[in-house]
Amino acid sequence: MDKRGIPYVWGGTSDRGYDCSGLMLRAYEKAGIELPRTAREQYGAFDRKIDWDRLKPGDLVFFSDLGHVGMISKPGYMVHAPHSGDVVKEEKLSSWRRQAFVGAVRPDPKGVRQWAELREQRSEPVPASLTATL
């Protein structure tokens, strides 16, 4: 919440400016939880998804085909970095937001560790094919 008023900057992850996922990355970093960089990766990092009717403060909420993320700040509100020309702010969850809602996650250290392990496995080189010799 202390980042309210800082300008939106595409790709931003600092007090010079934040984009939506950069803001979430730094917020959870402060809590000791490492998140992936983009909104799509942040959503995919957790198997357990949260329904609209079960949102709690701290949950990450995703909108518009995973193109935007915010964090529930209190019931019915989220904090986010909206778009170019705007600033980090708290916003009431509107009916428009409900229609654009894709899903939500409740980040926890265990879930992020599982995501990191999976990511590491995916980046490991494929073993060379074995050849039979006679």
UniProtKB/TrEMBL annotation:
Lineage, highest ranks first: Bacteria, Bacillati, Actinomycetota, Actinomycetes, Streptosporangiales
GO aspect biological process, one term: proteolysis
The family this protein is said to belong to: Belongs to the peptidase C40 family.
Pfam families reported in the protein's UniProt record: NLPC_P60
Keyword list, A-Z: Hydrolase, Protease, Thiol protease
Protein name: NlpC/P60 domain-containing protein
Record's keyword annotation contains DNA-binding: no
Superkingdom of this protein's organism: Bacteria
Domain NlpC/P60, chain residue ranges per copy: 1-108
Origin species: [Actinomadura] parvosata subsp. kistnae
Keyword Hydrolase: yes
Gene3D superfamilies named among the record's database cross-references: endopeptidase domain like (from Nostoc punctiforme)
GO molecular function: cysteine-type peptidase activity
